[in-house]
Amino acid sequence: MERTEFGENDLRLCLETLDRIEAKTHGMNLKYYIETYGCQMNEHDSEKLAGMLVRAGYTKAETKNEADIIIFNTCCVREHAEKRTFGNVGFIKELKQLNPRLILGVCGCMMQQKEVAKRLFSRFPFVDLVFGTHELKNFPSMLEKLLDEQERIFRVTESDGEVIEGLPVERAPGFATFVNIMYGCNNFCTYCIVPYVRGRERSRKPEDIVREVREVVAEGYSEVTLLGQNVNSYNYDGMTFPQLLRLVHDEVPELKRLRFMTSHPKDLSDELILAMAELDRVCKHIHLPVQSGSDRILKLMNRRYTTADYMLLVEKLRAAVLNVELTTDIIVGFPGETEEDFESTCELVRSVGYANAYTFAYSPREGTIAAAREDQIPEEVKKERLNRLNAVLASTFPANNEKYIGFEGDILVEGVDHRGEPLLFGKLSNFKMVYVEGDKSLIGSFVPVKVDGLRFNSLYGHIVKTEA
Ligand code: 5AD
Ligand code: SF4
Known about the structure:
By secondary structure, this protein is α/β, with parallel strands linked by helices.
């Protein structure tokens, strides 16, 4: 595959532009507000936009009302996203009337669908800037142009995508953060819009990934999630994902926890299972979207595995990786899904015993193969199946949780939960959430806990005193 790289010169130009904006707007106390929809990939893109805005002299606004620039980073994976975005963008009109110098930008996956982007741009004349997913690198020059000329900008280009290194990132505060290892997707699952709006698969250089992980650890993050639409197809000059995982693990010994997301079952190798089992700081959790429990539907979805293949992976993971937990994504109501297909999905959910699952009603996405099928399932059937699936899922949780009574492990304390008695909460390595009594000064640290009971789909326990 041809790989277009964002060169040193491009980076220098970007940074110079941002510094020029900072010089021009110095003392104006400009503020930014970014509203993000969708997945972690989008969240992380927003962190990059924020990084550029901070370099340009902006600070974060707490509310939209005090912002000088508002950016909507949109998603189009499921319906309603479009309606919601159109609605929320519409609300900004009032703010524009109160603050005429307010800049309103809309970007992200939904804007990469050119027709939708055009519709939004013409429907809302007060939107100043619309840009697609391949334009992050052009954000500095677009912002400068807007500030200088106050002319609307529409920039959506077709591209396989590229790998951009070195732009500043303003990470959400906390103890866990994300590092991209690859972009795009080549899988073309027949229901999914992602390959059309995120371009082809392209992997980052291992040394750039390791450098970024080192940087975030130096900034104080304890946990890193390596991100990709399908991390298992990471490939940089022959380096595979399990090799990359080992590299990051070994090169950054100060990193306390290493996670990764998302794994496509068709590419999950024995080598990865072994790496998960052997590397002590790699978390014992895998997000393994199954999508359906019917082989017929999996085939129509172009998932390229059978339920038997999937169950074999589950077996192998459980045999090799101590205390491993699985989470998944499931779609109900894919075109042509019969009651029998749906029952097979419920059966699979019962037999796997997931720690958790994200369940969705199928939503036709224009331009995808499945959206063109004539055997679409009525909305009410989809809704009803979704409810039934969620009930099946919930019925599997107690059995999965009860085995934890008496379990001991470390949690990374994330915060205080105020539903009822205030309790600290944090996750075990395998992603199970545990609530314990304790002082809020423990937030951000690893504490050993013992599980005494269940709380919702989580665990309740106490802090185990360690010998000093
Ligand atoms: N309809 C419903 N759910 C979808 N997903 C992706 N595309 C669609 C769609 N058209 C779900 C899949 C995927 C998750 C991120 O979103 O389950 O794994
Ligand atoms: Fe979409 Fe399938 Fe790619 Fe995941 S692997 S992003 S579901 S096309």
